[in-house]
Each structure stands twice: as structure tokens, then as C-alpha cells.
Amino acid sequence: MNSTDENSAAPGPDFLRHDTAPATAAVEGYLEHDAAVYRTLLESTKAIPWKIDWATMQFAYIGPQIEALLGWTPASWKTVQDWAARMHPDDRDKVVNFCVAQSKAGTDHEADYRALTSKGEYVWLRDVVHVVRDARGEVESLVGFMFDISERKKTEEKLAELQRELEALSFQDGLTGVGNRRQFDAVLHREWSAAKHHGAPLSLVMVDVDFFKSYNDYYGHVQGDACLKRIAAVLSAAVRPGDFVGRFGGEEFVLVLPNTGAEAARQVAERCRDRISAADIAHERSPFRQTVTASFGVGTMIPSEAADPIAFVNLVDSQLYLAKDNGRDCIAAVNRAG
Asked: Which domains does the chain have, with CATH numbers?
């Protein structure tokens, strides 16, 4: 094989040679080309790049996509005041204070807020911020991206609404629509704590539909369900704003009356009894005018450290049984408020 000389060697492309520094003009050309490529990439994405000079608090750059999203031209974003002024008033203080504190600490961070459009509407944005430091470790600039998260927020709001609806359903009696036992437990705990804190009276009313088993046996369970719905509606209409009505179980209902003394609680029970009677729900098997009636147990006390809410429920329940032992369609009450 014939050897080849230097002049016959095929030269490799310069841009693949890492051991030979290109000429200064070539370096500048590459840098300009790279900068153009990076800029094109940044400005073709939905993420909106920006840079703020820390010393002057002025925008050094913001992507042209901002105009398509918010309607404000890039030239109108001069200082951080423009950024803050175009933020929803309810978000402004919290977000600005957070971002300033994180930036001063040199900590990268994110912030969600509603940004004002040129049409007066609001768009949810997320700012992802990187803090750039100089050689001394001082904050030099902030660079980051703005993302339109409006659709994500709409989804989050829908999920939150569904969660609220599910929570409401979990606290609602499926048949009558009033509160269920779970909600009663939560309400009693809340009102017990509040009454104990304020030294206020708390009253409880237990209601039991008289001769309901014989009602079901005579009219059937479908009609029995309809009867319970009517009783729940009557009780709900008879109580005051702020009072709680719930189904305790079966044909028993319970009322929680916050900040209510013994006499006022008895008046509520009397009103409920009168309205059930006035509803004139037919009950052929009842000895009381052949209409549906109810018995009531009422209790009042001022909660204390020594008292117990479960014992209070049992106390009122015992009054309910006393009312039934006394012939039904009546009220038995106990006052432990002192």
C-alpha cells in the first residue's frame, strides 16, 4: 500500500475539532447563532421568560408571549411596579411580600396569582423564579418563567367544589335531607366547646315519632319514609336560624340549640310539637286523634370541664323516655344550667 503525504489527508470539519480554537470572528458567530436559537426556543414556548435587574428593579427582558396572554406589550413592563400593579388586589400584598422575602434570601421560589389583562379580566399565572447571585454571593438578578395556569385552577376549583359537595352529602341524612348522626356529633362538639368557652347555656331536644312502628306496619315503609320527610321539614321550619336539626336514627330526631336557656328550649319544643300536630298527618293506629304525634326530651346545661357531652345526650335521652312513659305526645325537660 502506498503511504499518503500530509497534503493528501482529508481535513476534518472545523466545528468537530475541539483541540483547535476557532478564530474570534467564528466564536462570535457561534455565540450569536446560539443566542438566536435559545431566544427562538424560549419565545416559541407557552412559558413566558423574563429577567429583572435587582439593583434597578427594572425588567431587562420579558417574552413577547406576554402580549398574547395578557394584552400588555413587552415594552409596557418596565419595572416591578408594573408587575405588582397588574396583580389582583386580593393577591398583591401576599405575593409581593413573599417574592421579595424569598429573593432577598437568595431562595428560588414559585408564586401563583391572578394577573390583570388589558381587557380588565384576570388570568391565573404561576411565576417560577431563580435568583442569580454575583461572585460575592449578592443578588444580581431574577430570572424566571410565567405560566398560564388558568385551566389548572379551574380544574382545582371544580375538584374543590366536588369535595365540598361530597362533604355536605356525608353530613346529610339521605332520606330526610337534614343533618345525619355524623353531623350531629360534629355540631355538638363544636357548640359544646363554644358554650364552655363563653359560659353560655346549651340545650338539646330529642324527638321521637310516636307509634311509628305501627305506622309502618299499617301504611308500609314507603309511606313511612314520606312521613319522616314531613316531620323533618316541620322541625326545620320550627327552629330558629343557627339551630341544628338532625336525624338521630330511625324515627328519632335531635335539635341542638346554641346559647339557649331552659325556658327558650322548652318553647322551641312546644312549637315543634304544635306544628307536628297542625300538620295533621293521618295515623289510623294512633290513639291520639288518629294523627302523627311526637314525644320530646329537653335538656339544658352550661358545659364545664367536669361535664361530658355524651352524658348530656344520655340525660336528654332519658327525658325523652320519660315523656313516652308519661303517655307520649308531651314534653319532659331537665335544667342543669344552675
From this structure: 17-153 (3.30.450.20), 171-336 (3.30.70.270)
Asked if the model's pLDDT at residue 182 lies above 50, the reply is yes
Q: Closest Cα partner for 316 from 250, 249, 254, 246?
A: 254
Cβ contacts of residue 139 below 8 Å, gap of 6+? 54, 103, 104, 106, 131, 132, 133
pLDDT digits (tens, 9 = 90+) for 123-156: 999 999 999 999 999 999 999 999 999 999 999 9
Residues classed as catalytic: 251
CB–CB of 101/92 below 8 Å?
A: no
Residue with cell 344520655: 314
For Cα atoms 112, 116, 117, give the angle at the middle one, nearest 5 degrees.
125
Mean pLDDT calculated for residue range 116-121: 96
Residues 77-93 have a mean pLDDT of 97
Tell me how far apart the alpha carbons of residues 107 and 58 are, in angstroms, rounded to a whole number.
Answer: 20
